[in-house]
What does this fold into?
Amino acid sequence: MKNLFPRLAGNPKAAYMATAILAVALILLPLIVGQAGNAWVRMLDFALLYIMLALGLNIVVGYAGLLDLGYVAFYAVGAYMYALLASPHLAENFEWFRMMFPDGLHTPVWVVVPLGAALAATFGILLGYPVLRLRGDYLAIVTLGFGEIVRIFLNNLNAPYNITSGPQGIGAIDPITIGGVPLSRPFEIFGFTFESVQLYYYLFLALAVMVIIVSIRLQNSRIGRAWMAIREDETAAKAMGINVRNLKLLAFAMGASFGGISGAMFSAFQGFVSPESFILMESVIIVSMVVLGGMGHIPGVILGAILLYAIPEVLRFVAKPAQEAIFGFEVVPPEALRMLLFGVAMVLVMLYRPEGLWPAPKHGAKVRPGDKAVPAVTGTTQA
It folds into this structure.
């Protein structure tokens, strides 16, 4: 509780009460927002996916200090893995596969989630091992290239054997089914009907909570503190006996696993995947979420993910009607306005809040009610 509500760390009862109120609000949120239409609930679904992606990248960038601009590659690996394991695509394109599985593969979700995490973690290690000696800009360039290689690879893997259908993508992907209930259809219980987007919301919420719990446990563990030591001074960390190589690989693997899970959920939710969903801009946006919210701080990363996804999407709906009401015509297209505000927001944050909107408290400083700022900790110690 103290990680989510640091100001209530000294009052466990208040912390549990705040957690209960937050849980009830998150459970009721899709039911309330759904009154305005399913499109708004769909935005909540994608916001939860981006929260999982941002928390996964936070392990690599925020904890270990490794700038990764190819994180969307792990998102793509998870998405295509689910698409191939839960669709008739392979049976339609390979005769030998059709003989074994006439209707194609229809893998259950309890198999897909661990597989998505494991496969993406494997790709994370494959990326991490060659770049162990790289830092800063050089690491960013190599990881950026890795992300583009994966996207181009998926875009061209339709000949001579059609594995990904290239730019056409893979469709007819199975929805997630839990207990015999497909989440793609409305579900009625006790006379109340839950729409498909609401069912997916609760699934994504459960996974996001799981990711948050794992992130908190990692942050407070010896591994998490070792990552932060590497982030602050890799040479000093190595001198203290920390196995820098293995911990860097573990950071890449753990962060990638969250991306793989998110990709599998994206594939099931959309029912279709194509390489254009995993362009470089997606990686840039995910990195921006971590930087905007506050690197290494879980509540800050969650805030950054919500703001950078929700605000542009809201503008998509309200920008054009607002301009027509004020000026009588559309002055700036909504897409251009979204990117303009995105750029302005990032510039302002870098100028006035370089540590993020909700940065992590300084080490050694206690957060007390009424504190306006936390002073930086220096090398001296007061008696």
Summary: The two ends are 30 Å apart (CA to CA). The chain has a mean pLDDT of 87.
